[in-house]
Specification:
- The structure holds 2 protein chains of 2 kinds.
- Chain A is α/β, with parallel strands linked by helices.
- Chain A is built from 12 helices and 11 strands.
- In chain A, strands 1, 2, 3, 4, 5, 6, 7, 8 and 11 form a 9-stranded parallel beta sheet that branches. A two-stranded antiparallel sheet of chain A has the order 9-10.
- In chain A, helix 1 packs parallel to helix 9.
- Chain B has 10 helices and 12 strands.
- In chain B, strand 3, helix 3 and strand 4 form a beta-alpha-beta unit.
- In chain B, helix 2 packs parallel to helix 3 and helix 3 runs parallel beside helix 4.
- Chain B is globular, with a radius of gyration of 19 Å.
- The N and C termini of chain B lie close together (about 10 Å).
- The interface between A and B is large, with 75 and 82 residues.
- Strand 9 of chain A pairs antiparallel with strand 9 of chain B.
Chain lengths: ~350, ~290
Amino acid sequence: MAPINSYEGGVKVVDAGADEIYCAVQIPDIKDFVLYRGPSSELPGYEDLGRVVKYAHDRNAKVDLVINQPYMVARIEKHLRKHSRSCIDQGVDALIIGDFGVLSIAKNLNVEIPLIASTYLVSMNSEAVAFLEEQGFSRAVLERHLTLEEITSIVGSTKIGIEILMHGGGCSNINASCYLYHHQFPELINAQRESNTSTPCTLPFRLQNLNDPQEVSEEVPVMDAFEYCSICKLPELIETGVESLKIEGRTGSVWYQETTTKIYRELLDLIAAGRMDEYRKQLEELKNGVYFLPVPSDFYKLKDMWCWQNRCYYSPIAQAPYKTPLSWQTWTKQHFSWVQR
Amino acid sequence: MNIVIQTGNLPFLKEALASSSQKMRFGSEFCMYALPSIDALETAYNLTKDAGKDFVYVTPRLADGYMDTIRKHLLLLNDLGGATIVVNDLGTLHVVREFSAFRPYLGRQLVYTPSRCPWKEITEHQVSLFTKRKVKQIFYQTSLNYEPTIEFFKGLGAIGADVDWIPEIFPNLKFLSQKNLQVSVHLYSIPVAMTRKCHMARFLGEEDLDKCSRPCYTKAYSMNNELLDTSLYLHGNTVFKLMEPERKTMSQLVKQGVKELVLTMSPLTRVSSQTQLESLIQRLQA
């Protein structure tokens, strides 16, 4: 399942082998209310959505619409209802929903359309998934902070489809319980620029024990626990029995969306065909390559960026990747990136 | 205004029971690894009832492996006569509904509150004042201010909800009271971000969270990045911002129909003894 934010992206990821794509469309009347992601993560209008749907359907790919507002208020109800209706009219195949208020709006549209429970509904156990099934969801996207055993257990306990994230800047915190919004806040933008970081949870902090002020640690990226990649874990992820594997990255470039989809498609096909030697060989090539970055680069290799920091999805929960020291090569690359330019 | 004391371990509970508060909350609000043992839960329940006080059990978000534990806890409380259960997980809500003796109370993790965000400017500088005002009206609501959402949870048996001491949301709490949902306002600490990959345990080198030595029982940290112009605090797996309650905002709360404040005993609130509790209760009631 691949992310897009443009018609061009839609064409590229479908051609790259996505079975399903997901996207949001800008809601015309509430564009000033942005918490997590800005307009750059969304298709600009319904016409673009219609073109994406047509292109995807002609090639047997599905299009899921993201309307996962984390909460609903009366003031935007009318706009969201109209928006959902307009998107459904363009032929989308499912709605991704992250709030029970939005769920009520979707149900009141009186349209037969599959509903997918977003990570905002925080499915972490079989009972939560059973609850979501009762509410009419036909698929649940599990929270990232789970182990492979827990995912397998949930899949085995339910009749509805289970989807998991497999790639992209996963959250250090539980998605729906994190209010460190990434978008549009001037203080945050300034701090990230100065610290050369891209998300609030990678910022360094000065930690001081409240009950022992002598205990101080400087420059600790204490919240930095995000995961990034799961190319090495694909056989185990398939083994869990999940229905859908999702790539994160609606704000990414078309290049990122296309190459990431293509890489995972090829790896999944190799595994499906039982060509495991080729799969393992390709993994090694990928780790020495320059993939999965927001923009093309000749500089960073996958193993420099993520492997050495153990940024693997569904790793042991208490792993402490920020404690792994950067190699001197990576440090040099990060601090002298101007050489590249 | 009733003041309820929330504790996560028996030593704190014993201190709290000696205070003038008439209601005790016991359990773990944020961390599944800090669930009490069944013996500790039974002891906490009995101690509270023996002291003639009300007992509320607080539960966190849970992974599959902990659902059996929570089910055993609920069976025990059911046998002991039932209780109010603070629920932070949809799975727990699903299980709680199997028992008629329980009254589910929506925990802070089931009440989405965008103004927990630590950044002060919520829109770009360039937008008009009218737009800023409109955005603020949306921003300072909770997910329960939308009627279908509150009705949804009430339909599932919810009798109340936990919210935070964020004065800007207080005018919107009246709606919850009018819908016959009891509202409990947590004092001092507002959860800003919560993880399962416990930030504090990782920082302190804990390797297996199932065998965590619970450094959060004694430690909490301030987190500062001078570029952010805001102070954050780390306690266990949750990052908080702190807010000191003020007298004028307290009277505002009363007008909104709020009757209960929650005071958590922890290294973060720096309340750990009956004496500290009592002086705080006196100050709040004044």
